[in-house]
Design brief:
The structure is a homodimer. By secondary structure, chain A is mainly α. Chain A has 14 helices and two strands. The radius of gyration of chain A is 18 Å and the shape is globular. The two termini of chain A are about 25 Å apart. Chains A and B meet through helix 2, helix 4, helix 6, helix 7 and helix 8 of A and helix 2, helix 4, helix 6, helix 7 and helix 8 of B.
């Protein structure tokens, strides 16, 4: 079995584990308030590449973490990601009707329910990282809660969304684009890797900093690839409305650099990401493979 | 000095402390993204009765907690409360233009910003309860994080909002109304009291259960009084649009019981709340006074 096939098997097994786990962790659809719980499950289950949980698993392997702890950490980050998509799709934000190949949450349910779905998914994420034992000691775990909170908040993901709002109709320089994406998608991707790593005991501060730098590079690469796919791929492949960023006047890497240079930039970020893992040995294999998975993906 | 005057001084000093603390804890308005940070400060600062932080302080006194720890716990709960008001006022929810005597957040800024303000305030609340040392040991503090997450989520406050949405245009029985309010406002009021209490070391499980029962009663009393004020008080006194619940077809205690019986019910809940504190001695003084503050308030 070559390494690529092996990665697919590894990733698929973990995507299935996350799906099962999320099914268990989300409140059952028959528990009151039923409509809210059904809508939360609709927004989270049955779709998504689960890139953030995969990162948590991969960083967990590097740190010799119990995979079940990395799974909870990854699920918590995925809930934050899912809530941000539900809110981002609302009419007052991107006003999108299609997500992961299905009607968006507010289209399938209603706007008020979608708003509450996002709010409740965020609370549930913090419930998970405080309820389950994830780290060797409780102080480390409190630091993990803080890490997730900062990555989600106004100086992380939510702040990135605000920068994105302000950027509509503007021309951003490449450093300005980078600042936006380091917040909007990068913060949570870094949190996924760091939380996975901190579920284990195997990493010193230097190795944690390497994981963080790796995640920063692939977080940005993820966005560059997203922009290229948005410009090139058909809607059916993406599972979300293609070409929308350009139509909405949002600055993208493609609008700033063109397609060819964007692709070259993504390749450069992949190399930087791999270099960040130098010296971490074989246990960093899954992280290395994830860098390729993210940069070479077609959807 | 009689006890009532004394309570006013006690409450006023703590309301000022919370205001100063929130000013410090919220990101400065000049930090990027500025508009988001300005809107977060607008939504939280300069108004509000700060009932939840007062409860955290009062329960903290009962448990002989460091008041600075109770202050952080109270501030975190107040941020969750403030986020819920911002989201609740959005056009897709209650569509309100006036809150605490000022334009609501989405009127003063815009809907997308108000959505992100709520999201980021929730994250900040969880940052506070994980970043500052609040309890004697980190495991207790993790339990406090979980308590706040559960109280905020789909089986707490956000769930209560969903039940409220479903109830529009319906006639609810008094037990159904109670179920709704125990979630919508009660969960967070209980969390405020319990978090304040857990900042100290002075309470055993029995005393914690007493505080919880007290908070459950005054949480409900708070809502009954709210419904009476909404039916009776002018908008200028309330600082929010009066009589709106009835116009929006929302079931209230006044619509279920009438004004006179609602007032009697609030008095009964006050008595139950005070009875719950039996045997806790002089250190429960501020909790007792808060029960009166909540039931006898005019706004």
């Amino acid at each position: 079995m070559n390494s690529a096939t092996d990665f697919q098997g590894w990733a698929h097994a973990r995507q299935e584990r996350i799906e099962t786990l999320l099914q268990t962790l989300l409140p059952a659809p028959e528990i009151a308030p039923q409509r809210l719980h059904q809508a939360m499950r609709y927004a989270v289950l049955g779709a998504g590449k689960r890139v953030r949980p995969l990162l948590a698993f991969a960083a967990g392997e590097l740190a010799q973490a119990d995979p079940e702890r990395a799974a909870i950490a990854g699920a918590a980050v995925e809930l934050i990601h899912a809530y941000s998509l539900v809110h981002d799709d609302l009419p007052c934000m991107d006003d999108d009707v299609l997500r992961r190949g299905r009607p968006t949450c507010h289209v399938e349910y209603d706007e008020a329910t979608a708003l509450l779905v996002g709010d409740a998914l965020q609370s549930l994420a913090f419930q998970l990282v405080s309820e389950y034992r994830l780290a060797a000691d409780a102080s480390t775990q409190l630091e993990m809660v803080k890490l997730l909170a900062v990555a989600s908040g106004s100086r992380g993901m939510a702040g990135g969304q605000a920068i994105d709002l302000d950027a509509v109709g503007k021309t951003l320089s490449v450093p300005e684009l980078e600042f936006m994406h380091i917040h909007k998608t990068g913060a949570l991707i870094r949190a996924a890797a760091l939380l996975g790593a901190r579920c284990g005991n195997g990493l010193d501060d230097k190795a944690l900093a390497q994981v963080d730098h790796f995640a920063k590079c692939i977080g940005l690469a993820f966005q560059v690839v997203d922009d290229v796919l948005d410009a090139e791929a058909p809607t059916a492949t993406l599972g979300k409305t293609a070409g929308k960023d350009a139509r909405q006047g949002k600055p993208t890497y493609v609008s700033a650099l063109g397609v060819a240079q964007s692709k070259a930039f993504a390749a450069e970020l992949r190399n930087d990401a791999l270099k960040a893992l130098d010296g971490l040995g074989e246990r960093a294999l899954r992280l290395r493979q994830l860098a390729d998975f993210i940069v070479l993906r077609k959807f």
